[in-house]
Amino acid sequence: MEKCSSVRHVAIIMDGNGRWAEQRGLPRSEGHRQGAETVSRVLEGALDLGIEYLTLYAFSTENWKRPVSEVHALMGLLEEFIDQKLPDFQEKNVRLKTIGRTSGLPSGAAKKLLRAVDLTRNNRAGTLILALNYGGRAEIADAAAALAKAVAAGKVHPEQVNEALFSSFLYDPEIPDPDLMIRTSGELRISNFLLWQLAYSEFYITDKLWPDFTAGDLVEAVTAFSRRKRRFGGR
Ligand code: IPE
Ligand code: IPE
Ligand code: MG
Question: What residue segments make up the domains of the chain, in order of their start?
């Protein structure tokens, strides 16, 4: 596969698991299970394309509104995913990271997640970032709180605050802004994903439901991206 130099970071709103299951008369949890399979395929596709960062929106700060049984199923799948995939990450040299309010996750899931993040921290083939208990507004509010603390402690002066300094208080300032944001299942909204970082990302929306999304669909999205003219407000 040809390496793609212009797309460093792809961020995906993995949506449509529930509808995929409902269309088949299956429980929603089965859609989430299939969705986890898609994650493996898409990660491989991203590595083949030379994409350095792949961020996947896996659980939002709003998803707690769902029935406890569904939340429980999702957290169980997260633990299973980490258990199953950790050896693959090591073998394929993939670094795992997470963004979100990790401490608000069930402690078992949080522990597994942070352990996998730690064990893979020196891997260099690519970075998979799982957005878990993540909200764009929560991230900005958390950054503002951290910045306010730094000001109160005399480490930062209010006059120094600019976009670059503010960015350094986000969950993981090392991660570049996404070049391309993909949303599956045809919904035309951001749903509180990466509000700060998506300022100039290209959007690609597909009607395909996440369990049906393939590595080929990722190639298609990246190809569409490569035809876009990014102006960043210039001309
Ligand atoms: C995306 O699929 C997975 C999560 C939000 C965790 P959904 O569960 O939102 O599926 P739909 O949108 O109901 O089809
Ligand atoms: C966005 O999907 C969150 C994730 C994919 C984790 P939702 O299904 O929760 O978003 P809405 O409710 O359709 O906006
Ligand atoms: Mg949805």
Answer: 9-135+176-226
Question: Do 6 and 48 meet the contact criterion of CB atoms below 8 Å apart?
Answer: no
168 vs 160: CA distance, rounded Å:
12
Residues 131, 58: contact at Cβ < 8 Å?
Answer: yes
Q: Which residue has the tokens 């406890």?
A: 68
Query: One of 48, 63, 123, 192 is an active-site residue; which one?
Result: 63
Q: pTM for the complete prediction?
A: 0.97
Tens digits of residue pLDDT in 108-155: 999 999 999 999 999 999 999 999 999 999 999 999 999 999 999 999
CATH 3.40.1180.10, applies to 9-135+176-226: yes
Q: Where are the beta strands (DSSP E) in the chain?
A: 9-13, 53-60, 94-99, 126-134, 180-183, 202-205
Counting from 1 in the atom list of ligand 1, the atom nearest the Cα of 28 is: 8
Query: Which DSSP helix (H) or strand (E) runs through 107?
Result: helix 107-119
DSSP state of 136: H
Let me know: does 105 contact 33? Beta carbons within 8 Å.
Answer: no
Q: Is 63 a catalytic residue?
A: yes
Beta carbons within 8 Å of 71's beta carbon, 6+ residues apart? 63, 64
* 60 Cβ inside 6 Å of ligand 2: yes
